[in-house]
Amino acid sequence: MKWPAPTQRLDALVVGAGLGGLCMIHLLRAEGLSVKGVERAGGVGGTWYWNRYPGCRCDVESIDYSYQFSEELQQDWAWTERYAAQPEILAYAEHVATRFALHPLIQLETGVRRARWDDERQRWLVETDRGDVFDTRFLIMATGCLSAANTPAFPGRDEFAGRTFHTGLWPQDGVDFTGRRVGVIGTGSSGIQVIPFLAQQAAELTVFQRTANFSVPARNRPVDPDEVARVKASYADHRRRARQQPAAFGPDHPRHSDSVLAATPEERRRRFEEHWQLGGFMFLGAFGDIVLSEEANWHAAEFVRGKIRAIVADPATAELLCPKGIIGCKRLCADSGYYETFNRDNVRLVDVSAHPIERFTATGLVTGGTEHALDDVVFATGFDAMTGSLLRIDIRGRDDLSLADKWAAGPLTYLGLMVSGFPNLFTMTGPGSPSVLANLVTGVEQHAEFIRDLIAWLRAEDAVAVEAGIEAERDWVHTVNVRSERTLYPRCNSWYLGANVPGKPRVFMPYVGFPDYTAKLDTIRLGRFPGFELRCQPGRAT
Ligand code: N01
User: Fold this and answer.
1) CA distances from 17 to 39, 105, 170, 251, 468 (A)
2) Does residue 500 have its Cβ closer than 6 Å to ligand 1?
3) How far is the CA of 38 from the centre of ligand 1 (A)?
4) CA 238, CA 235: separation in Å to the nearest integer?
5) Pocket test for ligand 1, best of 193, 436, 500 (most atoms within 8 A of CB)
6) For the chain (length 542 residues), average pLDDT per consecutive 10?
7) Cα–ligand 1 centroid distance for 426 (angstroms)
8) In testing the pocket of ligand 1, which one of 81, 146, 327 has its CB within 8 Å of the most ligand atoms?
9) What is the H or E stretch that residue 30 is in?
10) Nearest Cα to Cα of residue 350 among 330, 332, 364
C-alpha cells in the first residue's frame, strides 16, 4: 500500500501515553529531541485509563508503584491507600502529565495503524487512524503489556440483546447494574476484583468460571502516615533496595529463603498463616521454593484451598473454587472479599470447564444445554498480553520484514528492548524483559532511561541508527527460555505463555529475574552497549 506524504517530522515518536510513554516523552525532551506522543485513548494513563471497572486497584503497594525520576514528585505526591485504586492512579498520571508539561506533546484519540522503516533514509514512517504520517528517527512503542483486550469469539455473541462490557474497556461514565441479572465470564485478577462489587449491585450475579484461580486477600487499608514518613525520609534508599527485590517492590516485606519441605507441619502452617495475614503477593514469600518446586508448591496451594473451604459455606461451591494447579504459576490474585461473595444469596457459580459456553442467545448464554437468562454480560477475559498491542499494528522493518512474521513462532528480542531487523524501534517492557513479573512503573522507568542513554550514545557516535545484533538477540532469547524453565511458570495455561489466546505460540514471554536484569543493563551501559549495532549516515563509515 502506498504511503502518503509525511505530515510531521520528528526525532522521536512515542506510541502510548500510559506510565511508560509519559516518562519516555519527558526524558527524551530533556535530551533536546523533538518528541511527540500519540495515544488512542481520550486521556493519559494507559491501563489506568481503560480499566475503570468497579473494584479496580493495583496489587503493588502505592509507595512502590510510582515514579522515582523526580525527588520532588515522590515527596509531594500523597497516596491515600496501601494499594491505590484506579481513580487515584489515573489522577497521578494526569498530575505527572500536567506537572511536567507533557500534555502539549501528546495527541490523544490517535491510534497507530502501521509503521515502516525506510532503510535509505534511516527513518520510520508512521501512519495513524487520524491521517497523520509521522517521519521520525526513533519509534518507541510504549503500548503496554496488558492493553489489547481479549474477547473470545463465542458463537452468537452479536445476537445477545443485553449490554456487554469488557473490564479492560470500561465505559468512562461507569455502569449501573442495579436490579439487573449480570453474568461475568472470567475469574482472573480483573474478574476477582469486579465480582464482589457487581454482587453488591446486581439482582443476580452468575459467575462463569473455566479455571479456578488462587487469590489471597489484599488487606488494603489507608496508608500508615508513620510508614510513609519513614520511606520519604530516605526514598532513594528505599528505591535502591526495592530494585534488588525479585519483583522490584517491598524491600521491607518479610521474605524467607528456606524450603517448605524442611519445615515441620506446625512451622509450615504458622508461616503460611502469617503470610496470608500479610496479604497479596507477600504470601509467596513464606518460603523460598514455592515457585521453584512442585512439591513445595503443593503445600502452599493446599493451605489456600483450606482457606477457601473455610470461607465458602456451600461445600460444592467451595470445591469448584478450589484451584487444582500450581499457586503462583498464573499471576497470583489479590482480592477484597472475593471468596466471601459466594456466600451471598444472589451469587451463583457456573463451572464452564465441564460445560463450556456453547453460544449466546438474545436473552443470555447457554452452557451444557442450559440457558442462563442475563441482562448484562461482563467479559473479564483478559488480554492478548505483551505482544498483542504491538502485533495489532502493521510494523515493517528492514527489507519489509513484518514484526508479525518475525514473531510467528514467538517473540524474539534483545533484552525485551529491541528487535533485530527493526532499527531504531524500541519496545518498552517488551517480551524478554521482566515487565509483568515486576513492578511495572520501575520497569518502564528503567527502560525509558536505557533507551534515552542508547540514543545519547548513538548521537555521541554521530550515528543515525541502532539495532539489536542477531547473535545478541539469539543468545538473549535462549537466556530468557533457560530462566523460565528453572521455575514452575511454564507448567500452566497462563497468559504469560499466550495460552489464553487461540493460535498464539506457546512461549514464556517475560524474563524471570528483575535484579539480574538490572545488573545486566548496567553492565551493558558501562561497556558501551555490546549487542547493539550502530549505523552512520549513508556514505559514512561506522
Ligand atoms: O485476565 P486473565 P485478567 N471461556 O487472563 C477466562 C493484570 N491485572 O484481566 O483461566 C471461559 O488473568 C480465563 O479462564 P482460564 C494482572 O497481571 C492486575 O483477569 O483461561 N472463560 C480467566 O479466568 C493479571 O494477571 C490487576 O481458563 C474464559 C479469565 O477469563 C492480568 O492483568 C487487576 C474464556 C481471564 O483472566 C490479566 O488479568 C486486573 C473462555 N473462552 C488485572 N477465555 C491488579 O493489579 C478466557 N476466559 C490487581
Assistant:
1) 6, 10, 18, 29, 25
2) yes
3) 27
4) 5
5) 500
6) 92 98 98 98 98 97 97 98 98 98 98 97 97 98 97 96 98 97 98 98 98 97 97 98 95 95 97 97 96 96 98 98 96 97 98 95 97 98 98 98 98 98 98 97 98 98 97 98 95 94 95 97 97 83 46
7) 27
8) 146
9) helix 19-30
10) 364
Orientation angle between helical segments 514-526 and 440-460, nearest 10 degrees: 10
For the chain, which domains are there? 8-148+385-536 (3.50.50.60), 157-379 (no CATH)
Best of 47, 189, 282 for a ligand 1 pocket test (most atoms within 8 Å of beta carbon): 189
DSSP state, residue 105:
G
C-alpha 478/C-alpha 19 separation (Å) is: 29
Number of other residues whose CB lies within 10 A of the CB of residue 109: 13
Determine the Cα–Cα distance for residues 321 and 28; give it in Å rounded to an integer: 48
Per-residue HEC secondary structure of 265-312 comes to HHHHHHHHHHHHHHCHHHHHHHCCCCCCCHHHHHHHHHHHHHHHHHHC
User: Amino acid identity, residue 339?
Assistant: Y
Q: How far apart are CA 62 and CA 78, in angstroms?
A: 9
Per the CB < 8 A criterion, the answer to whether 161 and 362 are in contact is yes
**Rounded distance between C-alpha atoms, residue 32 and residue 34, angstroms:** 7
Is the full-model pTM beyond 0.90? yes
Q: Whose CA is nearest to atom 39 of ligand 1?
A: 190
Evaluate: CB of 347 within 6 angstroms of ligand 1.
no
